[in-house]
């Protein structure tokens, strides 16, 4: 992933920060380091024109029927990683750049992209924990959008939120589903066929489409947009 990111550097100044989003005990301190580094006022930098968060980290969690979940600890760990840390990252990001705007009295276009899924709006058997995480994240970011959307009569706070479902991608997560022997039969057949027929979406293609959406900036804040909605 780091190598792929570096390929896009070109004329950009890039720094890499690696943190463990599942480590809730140290999450705040780790985020402080990153957000302080990105603070234009603390680093004598001109205000950013745009700040974009791609909130993507996540895991599958328990696979198999919901009634077969046997470990409360593993369930809590999965939900903390997929929901709690994700919501907290978005919260801290928006608050940080909102405070910078107030201090510098200059507008920074702030965009939060929650990487969603069809699983956020449709139930899929044997993927209950994953669907729950995606649905919770979608709802939180939709509420965040409502709270930060202003009317034409109000002074805008320049924040937009997008729930973007990238489609079924050719990733290690897809391979994990293919190799899972407790996955719903129809789901398993879908992923096996996608792999065999090479019909799975390549991550770069979906990322390019997301970039187009962000550059056009004509989406409604809080909306859920799927890759296939745009094709």
UniProtKB/TrEMBL annotation:
List the Pfam families. adh_short (PF00106)
Biological process according to GO: tetrahydrobiopterin biosynthetic process
Query: What InterPro entries does UniProt report for this protein, alphabetically?
Result: Biopterin_syn/organic_redct (IPR051721), NAD(P)-bd_dom_sf (IPR036291), SDR_fam (IPR002347)
A single GO molecular function term of this UniProt record: sepiapterin reductase (NADP+) activity
Q: Which domain of life is it from?
A: Eukaryota
Q: Name one GO cellular component term.
A: cytoplasm
Q: Where in the cell is it found?
A: Cytoplasm
Principal subcellular localisation of the protein: cytoplasm
The record's listing under Gene3D superfamilies reads:
NAD(P)-binding Rossmann-like Domain (3.40.50.720)
What keywords were assigned to this record? Cytoplasm, NADP, Oxidoreductase
Q: What is this protein called?
A: Sepiapterin reductase
Q: What is the lineage of its organism?
A: Eukaryota, Sar, Stramenopiles, Ochrophyta, Bacillariophyta
């Amino acid at each position: 992933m780091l190598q792929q990111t570096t390929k896009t550097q070109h004329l950009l100044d890039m720094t890499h920060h690696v943190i463990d989003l599942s480590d809730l005990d140290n999450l705040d301190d780790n985020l402080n380091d990153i957000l302080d580094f990105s603070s234009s006022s603390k680093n004598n930098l001109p205000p950013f024109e745009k700040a974009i968060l791609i909130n993507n980290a996540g895991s599958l969690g328990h696979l198999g029927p919901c009634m077969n979940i046997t470990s409360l600890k593993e369930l809590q760990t999965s939900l903390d990683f997929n929901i709690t840390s994700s919501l907290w990252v978005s919260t801290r990001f928006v608050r940080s750049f909102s405070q910078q705007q107030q201090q510098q009295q200059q507008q920074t276009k702030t965009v939060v992209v929650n990487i969603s899924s069809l699983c956020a709006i449709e139930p899929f058997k044997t993927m209950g924990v994953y669907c729950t995480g995606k649905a919770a994240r979608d709802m939180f970011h939709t509420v965040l959008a409502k709270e930060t959307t202003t009317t034409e009569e109000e002074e805008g706070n320049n924040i937009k939120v997008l729930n973007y479902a990238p489609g079924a991608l050719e990733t290690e997560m897809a391979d994990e589903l293919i190799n899972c022997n407790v996955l719903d039969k129809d789901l398993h057949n879908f992923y096996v066929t996608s792999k065999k027929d090479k019909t799975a979406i390549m991550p770069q293609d979906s990322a390019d489409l997301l970039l187009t959406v962000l550059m056009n900036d004509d989406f409604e804040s809080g909306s859920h947009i799927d890759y296939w909605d745009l094709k």
